[in-house]
Amino acid sequence: MVESADPVQIGHRVRVTRRRRGLTQEAVARRAGISRPYLALLESGQRRFDRSGLLTALASALSCSTVDLTGEPHPSADPSGTAALSLLPAITAALYGCDLDDAPDQETRPVTELLASAHRANRHRDAARYGASAAGLAPLLTELHVVAAHGRDEERRQALRGLALACYVAFSLTRNLGHPELAGEAARRCYRAARRLEEPAYLAFAAWQYGTALERLGAHRRVRALLERTVDEVAARADPTAEDTSVAQAYGMVHLAAGLHEARTGGTGAEHLEEAAALAARTGEGGFLRLHWGPTNVALWRLATEAEAGDGPAAAERFRRSGVDPGALGSPERLGAHHLDQALAWGQAGGCRDADAIRCLRLAERAAPTRTRHDARACELLDDLLARAPRASAELTCLRVRFHPSHRE
């Protein structure tokens, strides 16, 4: 219950968030499991949010957190994400509270300690331990800005590398927890740090995530321009036979992002996929910044890209027969994302492969529960599966409860 909350203020936040995401009342009401007239009354403040789980259902439908709607902590759609969500205000303040050209003058930890903390946060992110990844991230972002702005020579360069990585962690957390605007700001900060660092591996790494963030915000023209510019800038230095293949690995990720973006905007992404596959065949599996670049990840991206182009069931079947083991990457977060891509691909079959979609959705949740339960695509797929099911099953009912706590009533 949220009896103490102001229904007018919450309704206003619901309306503003819905409009910012370009969603109609009909679409949000359907996702939240309520009627459009009821949503209209809630938005206008004429009805209270007095039903258990209603705020959580609306937050899930709007791909945000309950904190965004109430201004104060409330249980999230996934209890395991509560710790990370509670730290988002501090992370937001850190990202907007300083800049490389306007950093505070304060004491910081040694840059080697800061860099180690950034890598530790990235390991937690890769393991889908979002609470642990978010812990300490806000002060880390501030301190890295300070050293990157005021440090000298190699100390400054180390801070810029650490800042790019810490911003990547912030980007991943906020994107996967339903805060695309904040993810966009984190990715922009990463890109600015990489630009100032002037190292091609970090530039391609930052462009890959910045392009991903811009795409989530609908800035398709800028995505294309950014990725094309990065390909032109980095191609000559992306040597897959070099002793250190970091540049080639990050450059390959740019091609994967460009292919996926092309598939989402009417193309196939085939040329970018082939470029990435040829590059991965020469570099082998790589470990730069836990991007998991290599032939295995290219195969996972191929499935996602072909599914985006509308060839989901066939792409999922091809992947199933390929023998590629996504678990070999050792990344719960990446494994969860892949299984969700599989579920979405099977879901395109219109019902005849729903058993496979449910199986993959369950695997995604098992690998990365917080990430999966906060993903709007997963929730929409679950709604479709429920609507198509000839009768309620225990498995679907359990998934519905975990993804939509309002259904516990």
UniProtKB/TrEMBL annotation:
Protein source organism:
Actinoalloteichus caeruleus DSM 43889
Alphabetical list of Gene3D superfamilies matching this protein = lambda repressor-like DNA-binding domains (1.10.260.40)
Origin superkingdom: Bacteria
Domain (HTH cro/C1-type) ranges: 14-69
This chain belongs to the protein called Helix-turn-helix domain-containing protein
Q: Which SMART domains match?
A: HTH_XRE
- Coiled-coil-forming residues are none
Task: Return the InterPro entries for the record.
Answer: Cro/C1-type_HTH, Lambda_DNA-bd_dom_sf
